[in-house]
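Hi team,

As requested, here is the filled-out complex form for the norvaline run. I kept the field names the same as last time so the parser does not choke. Let me know if anything looks off before we queue the next batch.

— J.
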Amino acid sequence: MNIENFVSVNQLSNDEFWELMALARNLKQDLRAGKSQLILQEKTLGMVFLKPSLRTRVSFEVGMTQMGGHAVYLGPDDIKLGERETTEDIAIVLSRYVNVIMARVFDHRTIEGLAEHASVPVINGLTDFLHPCQALADFFTIYEAKRELEGINLTFVGDGNNVAHSLIYASAIAGANFTIACPEGFEPDEAVVEEARKSTEVNILHDPAEALGDADVIYTDVWASMGEEDIAGEKKSRFDGFRVDEEMIKKAKDDVAVMHCLPAHYDEEIAQSVAHGPNSVIFEQAENRMHAQKALIALLVNN
Ligand code: CP
Ligand code: NVA
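And here is what came back:
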């Protein structure tokens, strides 16, 4: 893999994307088979979190342990990025200790700043704009469920947010057809859509019913993301009709895969019965975060 940092999925070539998928699959199989995976011995991952996390923190930390390395968690109150110390200085200092940095931040420019100033690889663990590690795990999960990615119809029902943006970029690389059904005013970023449209189909609709019949995958995420707590109530009123529930799933193919990056709000964007139902691959997605990220770290650090 030729990239130095992983800030966005659209940095990957098609070959690099498939190299990652293949290594993730091998690491997952080897783990299941109980084979040793000590490919990152004496390597340390620094994890900077300005927002909460279950999956990202645990999957990165456990992944490092499984590969013989170690992870250091730095929470919002530990280093106070931007308050106690500049992004630039944190990037320089962390690079003196650790072999790779993963950060979850608010402003996308913060991750770009870390990547610019760090001398070790920087991985985007979510910004307000993108969630690329999620998209890697999601496409790995779709491939496991459907045995192909090219031509797959991925329908996202909900907010044109960070998760949607990274899924759009991944769709462009893998040749999946991306459709979003969102309320007016909650469309994904135009520049992301325009870039992806050079390689694949991206449809923007405002009625979920129009997007369900052809869907191989129905994906949803929270209506209000971390950092949007003050507008969550207002947003909720705009997303009436965009809940992925049993009625919605009935309008799709029998074998449609239902996806959600989690955490879920079962009284809002998805019914618990659907998230835990027969079409759901949501908990495979959560597990696959670890396998996909282990592949990513190994390729970034060992290259
Ligand atoms: N999907 C995801 O990134 O989960 P966390 O916020 O718990 O890390
Ligand atoms: N869009 C959500 C994803 C959480 C993993 C958020 O940013 O809060």
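Two things worth flagging: The first helix runs from residue 14 to 32. Strands lie at 44-49, 70-74, 100-104, 122-124, 153-157, 177-181, 202-205, 217-220, 257-260.

Thanks,
J.
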